Amino acid sequence: MLIGMVFGNGYGSQAGAWRMPGVDPTGFTNFDTLVRYAQLAERGKFQFLFMPDFPALRADIATDAQQLNIEPMMTLAAVARGTERIGLVATGSSTFSEPFNLARQFKALDLMSHGRAGWNAVPTSDPMVAANFGRALPPRFEKYERLHEFVQIVQGLWGSWEQGAWLHDQVSGRFADPAKIKPVNLRGRHLATSGPLPLPPSEQGQPVIFQAGGGDQGLEVAGRYASGVTGAVFTMEDARAQRMALRDAAERAGRDPDEIKFFAGLMTTIAPNRRAALDRRIAMSGFSFEPRVGYLGQMLGLALDSAQLGEPLTKAQLAAARPSRQDLRSTYALKVASEGWSLRDVLAHGVIDYHPMVVGPVVEAADHMQTWFEAGAADGFWLCPDVYEDGLPPLVDDLVPILQERGLFHRDYQGATLRDHLGVPAQYGRDPRLQ
Amino acid sequence: MLIGMVFGNGYGSQAGAWRMPGVDPTGFTNFDTLVRYAQLAERGKFQFLFMPDFPALRADIATDAQQLNIEPMMTLAAVARGTERIGLVATGSSTFSEPFNLARQFKALDLMSHGRAGWNAVPTSDPMVAANFGRALPPRFEKYERLHEFVQIVQGLWGSWEQGAWLHDQVSGRFADPAKIKPVNLRGRHLATSGPLPLPPSEQGQPVIFQAGGGDQGLEVAGRYASGVTGAVFTMEDARAQRMALRDAAERAGRDPDEIKFFAGLMTTIAPNRRAALDRRIAMSGFSFEPRVGYLGQMLGLALDSAQLGEPLTKAQLAAARPSRQDLRSTYALKVASEGWSLRDVLAHGVIDYHPMVVGPVVEAADHMQTWFEAGAADGFWLCPDVYEDGLPPLVDDLVPILQERGLFHRDYQGATLRDHLGVPAQYGRDPRLQ
Lengths: 435, 435
Ligand SMILES: Cc1cc2nc3c(=O)[nH]c(=O)nc-3n(C[C@H](O)[C@H](O)[C@H](O)COP(=O)(O)O)c2cc1C
Ligand SMILES: Cc1cc2nc3c(=O)[nH]c(=O)nc-3n(C[C@H](O)[C@H](O)[C@H](O)COP(=O)(O)O)c2cc1C
Hints:
homodimer; alpha/beta; TIM Barrel; 2 domains; 8-stranded parallel β-barrel; two-stranded antiparallel sheet; 16 helices; 38% helix; globular; binds flavin mononucleotide
């Protein structure tokens, strides 16, 4: 089982994490704090940190922290210097970047981290981002066409210095072997480059490609190029189906399906018991419960009002409730509601969060991960701790030992590179099977 | 007097620096080494490091190191974490970047360095770079039009969180003051953005703008936006004229000319005496003398042959020599040749290098800097040591104390930010005098 951790704003995955006791309120821009959390994740032997990214201000900023890092590449440069083993995966947009610049920065990260970099290649689907770049979002088809070209150009640039091209031999005075440094000369419909990139290979050859799911066209991209995919899945069945679809896509592209790892998200609020965990969750998201009651009602097929926030569903409501088919989270929401929790507590279970959420003792997280993993629903998980400061230590110090004890998680890093950690082969340039 | 140091490839300014004794041959990608040199410059109280950049492979790579850093922003992120006071100026192209991405990365650098970032805004004039981006260079006029828009959009984004916008007040639960976070909504002929940038101000408000001269249109850009300009000047008269032109341009833009600092380049090869310095210079650039003899001849109005490399000019040649008016370096070249040095030694004086070069004892560098500074030819210098490993320590440990002794250079950093070091005012957003 593989573990990644979402690495965002220096506070944690809950919007109110920044104001919890003991949390550094300046964590958003404090790199001492950011690096410390990365080191903590490394102590837990996590395979990688994962940075989502949308280049825009997307938060209720009066009360909530931006859920994103101030700048993934600069942050990972700092983290690369402050850690030794953990993989470093950042999101970069193929629609709103220049391939040469992106290729160069990720390769630099790969060099400075000694082979620990990964690029989560996303086409970007947020119109707010497009407006920041003075444009409209291109049509979906075009966006993915550009994404394909972008990945191939980036990989071509990464491979423009072959293995062994950089000699730096002071005795002979040979700095590099020009025969092993080749132009790229790729030209697509949207993008082109001549190359070469002025950077040698890293310890893993070049960065790993990740992809964050986006329908059939995203699957196609992932199947061809990705070694890791972070999914948004609410049920084990859905996760299993997505993982299988991904493996099929890899096979269709002529690859071994084991070369591509599927990660299910898991959000955590850990406390000794359920009640304490719910209270913790409520304390860090106090502003956002009322407006969610209406949506909870939709999920359950009931007209609910925020006046009922402190009360459980009535018997009549429970009898009338029908989980919505539109939202896969509804069945779980109804299960929790049937246990008699107040609506606030139902919401505090994370039933309308982005990913499955464990709100309770740490062993519940271990059980969840084991069940999904053994059902073939995931190769690993990307964990989203509520607050790094005191929500990450239980994962590192309690969850990981349980998983190790059960023989599910490695006792230590075996290799040095992200490719080693993921068990995927080294790569130099474009995948020859696709050319 | 202000001092910057060119910070390039981890070896030094001479192409053969990488193979000199004691030099780390992997310095190109070794961030421990890069950070160590930055710390050394900081020990010398230099005001800033300056990173030129051309996103392309531009070196005789079989024997010479690329004269550029693998990636300026990632490197400066590492350096920001490893230093405390020295300013960090990187070059970024307005033709081949997205303003939102560039604004965000420089602002992140400014935050992580606590207000020490600067952006050297260049339009890029190298067709090899353009080809790496799959395009041709735009016409000169258009390139500068885009540069103007680019700088204003970047500054607009930098200012989109006003001073005091970020509250992070855990007691009241107020993360930011939305009234102080404004969209940018700039739209030019080439570029546009909505904004805001999701990053708060730094300790100096926002990064400093630098410009690297490019004719009248570059002067216009510098006059409006720049706080620092790195010039390429061979004679004191030329430097003085360029500095005056720059100050005039600043005044025309409605600014105080003291807000803009002009830096003359100075290359150094330091040794106890001239002969030792020439030998050092020859050892680190042994591959490149023969092909330069012809050009030296052109500078002197003589037909010279590399067979004469070990000999001085004959009496007849000296009598016939006429310095070329095309190349301002020619007068100095003739002066050196008249001293009776062999042609190899004449070249080893750096007479056809990019900047004036001191090849000799450290006091000659101090004298050069004092003379130029007192003549109003420069506000400071950007030093290009031949090799960082053993060519930078004499600047830090010998040159700086001489300048301090003469009352020309500060004894220590007074302020904390790059703006403090340069003596230029804090800034939030676009310059109101230009709007
Ligand atoms: C788990 C997950 C994480 C994602 N992370 C990002 C991200 O960080 N940045 C981004 O721009 N898009 C992200 N996406 C969006 C996808 O890349 C994709 O754009 C989205 O699913 C919409 O698909 P479409 O663009 O094909 O319409 C993510 C998607 C998923 C499922
Ligand atoms: C001292 C100095 C340093 C420069 N450094 C860079 C650089 O690092 N990157 C770059 O693209 N251009 C650099 N330039 C080039 C200028 O920005 C400008 O493009 C060049 O002078 C040509 O002018 P033009 O583009 O107006 O033709 C530098 C110029 C000078 C004088």
